[in-house]
Design a protein that fits this description.
single chain; binds acetamide; globular; seven-stranded mixed sheet; TIM Barrel
């Protein structure tokens, strides 16, 4: 058949319009609309950023962009006023606020036009300009992420027109700095990484059983005692108990000056900081500092990873009481002091008071709690906790703040104005939203970034799994919820098994990209296959930025089932399309000349290991996973 030139043209037009988005743009989160334009913009050493006037926030965002560009390009891009003389060899990035607000894009949206010698970025508010800058940076070649000079005569950005705004106003990441401590500089880096994906809330989990991390001037022992534990590696909760005199050298805390710096650093990047001060459970570091706050007289120590809680199918009991005594007036005096200082330090409207996983077994035995129940007519331990939470809400509100807590605060009756963070699935969020309380959705099955993201036997040890593809299915408005009350959602990084910033990055990326898209992009613009293509491009950007990330999307998924004949049958799969899986049973390392997985395989007699690796276009992609046949039998439920 002879295909004419015009047929070819038509074919290529229809092919490009099949995909939702032009493929050369790998923007995460996916913008509301993006249109490819001809030509491209070139940034060179004469280029400038032009602003209409001296509005400080516009100047600040412009300087932020200039600094990012300087780092990698080395071009001394000046921020100058429109009308100031410019070199006609240069190109212009024009940044301005809309004189007349654009009703479609709201407070955080922006429009961005990239043409041959001019980029025009506009927004209603400075935050929108900041997000437009993040998008513009993603349009540059990956080397723009370099922290050191990359010599190029000019840098190209493809011509396009983008209109964009977020689906939700609360786009958070939680960092637990209690189980492991992250320095102030590491927190800056955490913020740098999150804003690239347009996150705007840092939920800072500052206190827990393993460390109190915020200086409270009126309660110095919280950091003198509560910030320090015995160093241990291994699996938290299975670590060996410290001896009485073992040096407590692991830990640290943020001084109030540090906190102010972090808050300012975040604010400059349009990030609100939500402080979390955990109570009444998860308070071992508190009672180690001030034992009189416990309802159970004794001496306490900051937990160093040794077991102190019994988890069982029906729930949990504390072996050592790690709670604040709800019938103890000193606790409320303590809360008054803590929240007074916390409220001064954090400008954000919310303070999180925890409220999750509070063991009640010591309360059950307490005479003081019994008397409190009689006096206040509380019929069970849920109502006792609810009494506690309501009193804390009054204290927090007296400081001019709103209170937020984990979904356990619904039990026994929700405090009058409390906002709820729904983590045990959707249920708490649905219930709270129907009661007209504000809700942030963080269902653990979709957004818990401490869960492993690949094959359990090679990932850091943890009790649950959450793959990238599942995080991409996170829908922040669950069925049955009152959507108007859902502020948004966030990914939570608990750090029992995350001892360093590098390890934190590994847990967050790329799943943090998926959650960013869940929270920012229109639901109908999400597309898993297109997302994966973008993620692979972003891996290259993270490499340049020297940010660690998990490549678990390339690893095989290994499942084992029992057949009718009680054989163990193994199935191999991959999370993304386009990978081939090769394997061996003979204790040698497989490559792409080994058997290729095409159908379920029966475990051969006497085999010791299954070794599996994925390839694409003749190149190894995933890690080689070696799994014992004993583990395969366990998975299949075969002895
Ligand atoms: C939680 O994960 N315990 C809130």
């Amino acid at each position: 058949m002879k295909i004419s030139f015009w047929t070819l043209c038509l074919l290529s037009i229809s092919l490009t319009s099949v995909g939702q988005q032009p493929t050369e743009f790998s923007i995460i989160p996916q913008p509301v609309s993006i249109e490819k334009k001809g030509g491209s913009f070139e940034l060179n050493s004469y280029s400038i950023i032009e602003v209409p006037d001296k509005t400080p926030d516009v100047q600040r965002v412009s300087r932020f962009l200039a600094q990012q560009l300087l780092r990698s390009t080395g071009f001394p891009i000046r921020v100058q006023l429109a009308g100031d003389p410019k070199d006609n060899r240069g190109t212009t990035i024009a940044i301005s606020l809309n004189r007349k607000p654009d009703a479609v894009i709201g407070a955080e949206g922006y429009t961005l036009e990239v043409a041959s010698s001019l980029v025009i970025l506009r927004a209603n508010q400075p935050a929108g300009l900041f997000y437009g800058v993040q998008t513009l940076l993603q349009l540059f070649p990956k080397e723009i992420e370099s922290a050191s000079l990359v010599k190029k005569p000019y840098w190209t950005v493809p011509g396009c027109k983008i209109m964009d705004y977020p689906r939700f106003g609360w786009r958070g990441l939680m960092l637990d700095v209690s189980r492991h401590f992250y320095s102030k500089v590491e927190v800056f880096r955490f913020i740098d990484d999150m804003v690239k994906y347009k996150y705007n809330v840092l939920h800072w989990h500052l206190t827990d059983d393993q460390g109190w991390r915020i200086e409270i001037k009126s309660l110095p022992k919280l950091t003198e005692v509560g910030a320090w534990r015995v160093p241990r590696v291994g699996r938290m909760s299975l670590m060996s108990a410290p001896t009485a005199d073992e040096p407590r050298t692991y830990g640290g805390f943020y001084t109030q000056d540090d906190i102010k710096e972090v808050v300012q650093y975040a604010k400059d990047r349009f990030v609100n900081v939500l402080p979390e001060i955990e109570m009444p459970g998860h308070s071992m570091a508190t009672v180690a500092s001030y034992p009189e706050l416990s309802g159970t007289p004794g001496t306490y120590r900051v937990n160093s990873g040794e077991k102190f809680m019994n988890w069982h199918s029906g729930g949990f009991d504390a072996i050592i009481d790690n709670t604040l005594g709800p019938a103890n007036e000193k606790v409320y005096e303590f809360a008054e002091k803590v929240f007074s200082e916390v409220a001064q330090l954090f400008p954000f409207e919310y303070i999180h008071m925890g409220g999750d996983e509070c063991a009640k077994n010591f309360w059950n035995k307490s005479e003081a709690v019994k008397q409190l129940m009689q006096k206040e007519k509380l019929k069970d331990m849920h109502e006792v906790q609810s009494y506690f939470v309501k009193r804390i809400e009054k204290i927090i509100e007296s400081k001019g703040k709103k209170m937020m807590g984990w979904d356990e605060i619904l039990e026994g009756g929700l405090a009058p104005n409390a906002a709820v963070m729904s983590w045990r699935g959707d249920k708490g969020g649905i219930e709270a939203s129907k009661l007209n309380h504000k809700v942030v959705m963080t269902p653990n099955a979709f957004v818990y970034l401490d869960f492993n993201q690949g094959e359990a036997t090679v990932e850091p040890p943890i009790y649950a799994n959450l793959r990238l593809s599942k995080t991409y299915q996170f829908e922040p408005v669950p069925e049955g919820a009152n959507a108007a009350m859902i502020l948004g959602g966030q990914g939570n990084l608990w750090t029992e098994q995350v001892p360093s910033l590098r390890a934190a990055q590994y847990m967050i990326w790329p799943r943090g990209m998926a959650i960013a898209e869940d929270l920012w992009s229109p639901k109908e613009k999400k597309n898993w296959n297109e997302f994966v293509v973008k993620v692979e491009k972003h891996f290259e950007r993270l490499d340049v930025a020297q940010t660690k990330y998990a490549r678990t999307i390339y690893d095989p998924i290994i499942t084992a089932k029992k057949s009718k004949d009680s054989d163990v049958v193994v199935t191999l799969a991959t999370e993304i399309e386009g990978l081939e899986i090769f394997y061996s049973w003979d204790e040698t390392h497989p490559d792409n000349f080994y058997p290729k997985f095409t159908q379920p395989i029966t475990l051969p007699k006497d085999a010791l290991h299954l070794k599996v690796i994925t390839y694409r276009n003749g190149k190894p992609m995933g890690r080689q996973i070696d799994i014992t046949t004993a583990e395969l039998k366990k998975r299949a439920g075969v002895k």
